[in-house]
Amino acid sequence: MKESNFAVPDIKEKENELKKKLDHSGLPCHIAIIMDGNGRWAMQKGMPRAEGHRAGVESLREIVRLCVELHIKVLTVYAFSSENWKRPQEEVNVLMDLLVEYLYNEMRELHENNVRINPIGRIDRLPESAGMALQASVNKTSGNKGLVLNIALNYGGRLELVDAARKIAKKVKEGKLDPESINEETLADHLYTVGLPDPDLLIRPAGDFRVSNFLLWQLAYTEFWLTSVMWPDFKKVTLLQAIIDFQHRERRFGGLIHS
Ligand code: IPE
Ligand code: IPE
Ligand code: MG
Fold first, then answer.
1. How far is residue 177's CA from residue 72's CA, in Å, rounded to a whole number?
2. Is 208 a catalytic residue?
3. Which ligand is located closest to the Cα atom of residue 204?
C-alpha cells in the first residue's frame, strides 16, 4: 500500500514531464501495437496466463485513453492472430471472453470519446458472442469521427493479402476491373484498412523482434519501436516515450534528406 501511495504521483510526474517533451505538431497519425507478453508477465509473477491477459486489457484501456487525449487519428491493436488458434482451447476462450467483456464495458466511454471501433481480420470466424459484441460496438460507434480503433482479430497479414487478391480477382472476372489498371492503390483499397493511412509507428513490447504476420503490406515504411517491457506493464509513460523517440527519427522513404 505504502509503495503505491508513492508510485502514483511519481508516474504522474513522469507523464507530465514526457508530455512537455512531445511535439504536438509532429504526432504519428497511425500507431500500431502488437500487444505481446501477457503470458510471460503472468508466469514471472507465478500467476496463470489468463491473469496476464486480464492485466493486458488494463493497458489497452490506458493506451486508448492517451491516444484520445493526444488526438491520434488511428490506433491498430493486434489482439488475436490467425495463428493464435493453435493455443489451448481454454486460453482461446479466455481471450474471447475478455474481448466481449472489454467491448461491453468500454463501448459507452469509447462512444462518448468519439472513438470508432473497427475490427479487422476474418471476424466472421470468431465465436458468436464475440461477433455479437463486435457488431454492437461497431453499430454504436460507426458515426464517430475521432480516433479509429482498429482491433485486429483472427487477423493475419498474409490472409489479408489473400482476401484482397480474391476481391480483386472477382472484380476482374465480372469485367469491373481491368487487370492492367491494378496498382498499389488498388491493392491498398482492398485491404481491411481501406481508407486509412499506413502506420507511422509500430510498437512491439515483450522483447521479440518480429512482425508475427501483422500488417505486412502497411508496414512498408513504418518506424519500429521495440521494448522489453511486457504489455501489462506498458503504460502511458511507455507510449509517450515511444512517440518522443519516433519524433527524433529521420524518415527518408527511400529518398534523401535535404538540408
Ligand atoms: C499477447 O500475449 C496476447 C495474444 C497473443 C493474444 P501472449 O499471450 O502472446 O504472451 P506471451 O508472448 O506468451 O508472453
Ligand atoms: C502476436 O503475438 C499476436 C498478438 C499479440 C495478438 P504472438 O505471441 O502470437 O506472436 P509469436 O507467436 O511470438 O510470434
Ligand atoms: Mg506472445
1. 35
2. no
3. 2
The full set of domains in the chain, from first to last, is 27-156+198-247 (3.40.1180.10)
Nearest to 36 by CA among 256, 247, 229, 258: 229
The answer to whether the pTM exceeds 0.85 is: yes
Closest to 96 in 3D by CA, of 116, 119, 115, 76? 119
Give the single-character DSSP code of 120.
E
Strand ranges across the sheet with 116-120: 116-120, 148-155, 74-81, 30-34, 201-204, 223-226
Query: What is the torsional sign of CA 48, 228, 55, 155?
Result: negative
Torsion of the alpha carbons at 108, 113, 114 and 115, rounded to the nearest 10? -70
Residue 190 CB neighbours (<10 A): 19
Average pLDDT of the chain to the nearest whole number: 97
95 lines ligand 1 (CB under 6 A): yes
169-219 pLDDT, tens digit per residue, is 999 999 999 999 999 999 999 999 999 999 999 999 999 999 999 999 999
| Radius of gyration (C-alpha) of the chain in whole angstroms | 19
Q: 95 CB less than 6 Å from ligand 2?
A: no
**Contact at 8 Å (CB) between 202 and 219?**
yes
User: What whole-number distance in Å separates Cα of residue 66 and Cα of residue 68?
Assistant: 5
Give the C-alpha separation, 134 to 84, whole Å: 19
Kindly state if the Cβ of 37 falls inside 6 Å of ligand 1: yes
Please give, one letter per residue, the 3-state secondary structure of 135-162: HHHHHHHCCCCCCEEEEEEEECHHHHHH
